Amino acid sequence: PTESGFTTDVLALYDWAKARSGNSSVLFWGHSLGTGIATNAARKLQEERGVQVDAIVLESPYTDIREAAAHIPITMIYRQFPGFEYLILDSLALGNMFFRSNENVKVLACPLLILHAEDDAVLPPHLGRKLFETARSAYKDKSKVKFITFPKKLGLGHDYISFNPELPALVK
């Protein structure tokens, strides 16, 4: 699996869904690592085909994979050792894994909804907030960019935002 391969797969799935959707909207919904894939695909669709996806929903996103890897819990024990950045973070770049949502959102114009739980222990909510601020600064129509946080008391963490019964209404 590569970043380019993931993006190509999503575009093929988009083409398949669009061909069968009639007048229905087709949106990209990415969760965690999938948020970088969703923004990559949306940008490629826009820049290479001149087509905007109808909307993007990013659930538990990050700015780019390097910043995400620096914050995920599994890397916590390694952060104190010399060479952490080179061995762990730089190795992602050597494998052409960037997932630069922070750069992608700067050129998008479709509606963008960012969802993050305050108790996300995998990707801290400040990464979602930072991505939102980047998008909001870049979008000409600021009303197309929304950020919704879910309070800790709901216990949604990294994986359970989709279980929130209010989610369908929030997305609409």
How would you sum up this structure in a few lines?
By secondary structure, the protein is α/β, with parallel strands linked by helices.
Give a structural overview.
There is one protein chain. With 172 residues, the chain is α/β, with parallel strands linked by helices. The protein has one domain (3-14, 26-64, 100-171): Rossmann fold, CATH 3.40.50.1820. It is built from seven helices and four strands. It has a four-stranded parallel sheet, covered by helices on one side. Helix 3 packs antiparallel against helix 4 (84-94). 28% of the residues are buried.
Task: Give the arrangement of secondary structure elements.
Blueprint: H1 3-20, E1 27-31, H2 33-49, E2 55-59, H3 65-71, H4 84-94, H5 101-104, E3 112-117, H6 125-138, E4 145-150, H7 167-171
Parallel strand pairs: 1-2, 2-3, 3-4
Helix pairs in contact: 1-2, 3-4
InterPro entries: AB_hydrolase_fold, Hydrolase_4
Protein name: ABD12 lipase
Domain Serine aminopeptidase S33: 6-69
Task: Please supply descriptive tags for the structure shown above.
172 residues, 13% strand, 4 strands, alpha/beta, four-stranded parallel sheet, Rossmann fold, 7 helices, single chain
**Global Rg:** 16 Å
Portion in beta strands:
5-15%
- SSE order, as H and E? HEHEHHHEHEH
Mass-distribution shape: globular
Spatial sequence of strands, sheet with the most strands: 1-2-3-4
Helical residue percent? Answer: 40-55%
Please identify which CATH superfamily we are dealing with. Answer: Alpha/Beta hydrolase fold, catalytic domain
The CATH first-level class comes to Alpha Beta
Average pLDDT taken over every residue: 94
Q: Structural class, from secondary structure content?
A: alpha/beta
* Low-confidence runs of at least 5 consecutive residues: none
Please give the CATH architecture: 3-Layer(aba) Sandwich
* CATH topology label: Rossmann fold
Q: How many strand elements?
A: 4
Tally of individual helices: 7
Whole-number total of structural domains: 1
**In this structure, how is the largest beta sheet organized?**
4 strands, parallel
GO molecular function: monoacylglycerol lipase activity; phosphatidylcholine lysophospholipase activity
GO cellular component, one term: endoplasmic reticulum membrane
Protein name: ABD12 lipase
Domain Serine aminopeptidase S33: 6-69
